[in-house]
Amino acid sequence: MAINSTTRRILTTGLVATAFAAGAVVPAVAAPAPFASAAAHHTAGYGDSARLGYEKSVAVHVLKGVFERGDTSVVDRFVRTDYIQHNPLAPNGSQTLKNLAPGFHQQFPDAEYDVKRVMAEGDLVLVHSNVIATPGTRGNAVIDIFRFQGGKIAEHWDVGQEVPATTANGNDMFSTASFPRTEQPGPRWLTAYNEKLVTDYVERVGVKKDVSAVDAYVIAKGYQQHSPQFPNGSQDLKATLTASYQQFPDATYDIKRVIAEGDLVAVHGHYIAAPGQRGQAILDLFRVRDGKIVEHWDVIQDVPATSANDNTMF
Known about the structure:
Blueprint: H1 5-12, H2 19-22, H3 48-68, H4 73-78, E1 79-85, H5 94-107, E2 112-121, E3 124-132, E4 140-149, E5 152-162, H6 191-207, H7 213-217, E6 224-225, H8 234-247, E7 252-261, E8 264-272, E9 280-289, E10 292-302
Parallel strand pairs: 1-5, 6-10
Antiparallel strand pairs: 2-3, 3-4, 4-5, 7-8, 8-9, 9-10
């Protein structure tokens, strides 16, 4: 099947959702989930745990509905009409999603939004996925963040990149390599401690360029890396970071938001290698066990010069 130039640009940047702006691509939904009585989950009688569980289910349901089945009904049910978009190729408003879905599904009828892990904190839900438009291809690594208001999606950020053929560490960009090998977040009572630990680590190593933070926060042996350009191991991490700081002495990193659930902590940031550059949007995902960072995933995307909406990527 031929791919038009707009769609090709969308997919090669790792932003399938970008098709929104073009109206050329749209996902679909798997078997409908039992959301008929969803509103009940938003009554005062339900605690945060039930609400977050519901919102995680909705986020996945909408992604699969739009990108796997071209289902516009999920947009009407679960996305606010004044939906705010931070994907640079997509305008604001829920109608953009509705315009996208049928076209994407028609062009990519076998597309899969393969969700790897989902986490939620406060009013934010994060979904880490392998988006495969055409079976047999490696697809894109995508991390979506949704903000919920009143049980509906009100705002969206994402970062996406193509999955490479090889990595420097031998791990893929999605699986869990540390033990136990689960994709699910750990117990919620660990959330606050792990969130502070990772935030402190990122501030030291990313913002202050303090490489010694690796020794303080990362497990000495067995550190597993899923970023394609980084090898496994804490010492190799230190060496790679040191070389980067030497090459880009004026680089800056700005933490935009942190989302944590159990032993998983995500950091959404803006990295600029040199003054005057637009930089990159980065979503780092860390797993913490026994007070140390044991595993890391990330998705990185260049910040474009223009946007289809009035918002930044952050």
